[in-house]
Design brief:
Blueprint lengths: L10 H12 L8 E3 L8 E13 L18 E6 L2 E3 L2 E4 L5 E9 L5 E7 L11 E3 L6 E8 L5 E6 L5 E12 L2 H27 L3 E7 L3 E2 L14 E9 L4 E11 L11 E6 L17 E3 L6 E11 L4 E10 L8 E13 L2
Length: 344
């Protein structure tokens, strides 16, 4: 005889599907920067590269300026909004990521890129070149002015500039990110709870199977004294929720009995053990009986039991004969399966 075993074929699959639906997707990847609590943190949003401006002559010109920067010249450029070949840079962007390229330089010089609300170029260089340099690019990440603009400063000679946007930054504090993570954890916990409920609502079975023959004990004169029946099988299970356990027994009888007795061979399913000393009046409903049989007649009977949440139930299969039989009565190929189904 074996103990009950639960099978949960769908719980983790559903949980897996439910969990995939919770995690947000986006058309852009995100990388977090300046991650010190209290700082003005930002989230980087990459975009398909687009040309913000190109000061080279037509037909290369993109944007409003078709001429190079002169010495000590500063070009002011709007970044947010729709400009040049770039569209939809949001007004909440606080910084931008650019590929900046110089072309046709006439002197040794350098380029400084800085927010448009800064009046004097900072002492820094984003790109350096000589008078004979071929087109030279460099990656520049720079903060925007509050109105979404940048300044481009050329130190000496003349030079054409080309600027391509590859991404931008939006405000995102660690507090906001923590709140998002907290909300996600809450949803995951809710999903886990839902999976537990779903798991508890799944039917499952416990079973016993044995091909060995069991000889039945005779109960003389149709009586039913203590221990006067023979246990054939048992299964045990614990209900995760209130519901019904339906037990199904099958086998074969090899008894040979004959009238005049009304009932010679009887079987039933019970949730009470044989050792509990049942009397005749305590015999559960007889679920299978025959008056006369020949060898190896099929046996099959079913009974249902109501169970409470958390209740452990053991179902027993019993059979008896009420008269002596030659050869002795036996039951073969015993199978008992109990299926738990929760209440709707």
């Amino acid at each position: 005889m074996n103990d009950s075993s639960r099978r949960r074929p769908f719980g983790w699959i559903i949980f897996g599907v439910a969990l995939a639906l919770v995690i947000p997707t986006a058309s852009t990847a995100r990388t977090f920067v300046e991650a010190s609590p209290g700082d003005e943190d930002a989230t980087f949003v990459p975009v398909t590269p687009c040309r913000l401006f190109d000061t080279r002559p037509v037909p290369a010109t993109v944007g409003l300026r078709p001429s190079p920067l002169a010495a000590q010249d500063t070009h002011v450029q709007q970044v947010t909004g729709d400009n040049g070949k770039c569209a939809g840079i949001p007004s909440v962007a606080t910084a931008v990521s650019l590929n900046v390229t110089i072309a046709n330089p006439t002197a040794v010089s350098f380029l400084t890129v800085f927010p448009a609300d800064v009046s004097v170029p900072p002492l820094s260089s984003n790109l350096n070149w000589t008078a004979t340099s071929s087109p030279t690019p460099n990656k520049v990440d720079v903060k925007l002015s509050p109105d979404g603009k940048l300044k481009f400063f050329n130190n000496a000679g003349t030079v054409n500039l080309i600027a391509d946007v590859v991404g931008y930054y939006t405000p995102a504090s660690l507090t906001e990110l923590a709140a998002d993570v907290g909300a996600l954890e809450t949803r995951i916990a809710a999903l886990e709870s839902s999976v537990s409920v779903l798991d508890a609502s799944m039917p499952f079975a416990a079973s016993f199977s044995n091909g060995a023959s069991v000889q039945l004990r005779e109960v003389a004169n149709g009586g039913f004294p203590t221990g006067g029946h023979t246990e054939l099988a048992r299964v045990t299970m614990t209900a995760p929720a209130a519901g019904t356990v339906v037990a199904n027994f099958s086998g074969r009888t090899s008894t040979q009995v004959a009238p005049p007795n009304d009932t010679q061979f009887q079987c039933h399913l019970s949730d009470v053990d044989d050792t509990d000393e049942l009397g005749l009046t305590d015999l559960p409903t007889i679920f299978f009986s025959v008056d006369s049989t020949t060898d190896e007649v099929p046996i099959a009977f079913t009974r249902g039991f109501d169970v409470a949440a958390g209740e452990t139930i053991t179902v027993y299969a019993f059979c008896r004969v009420t008269t002596d039989a030659t050869p002795p009565s036996s039951v073969l190929s015993r199978d008992l399966t109990a299926i738990f189904t929760p209440d709707p």
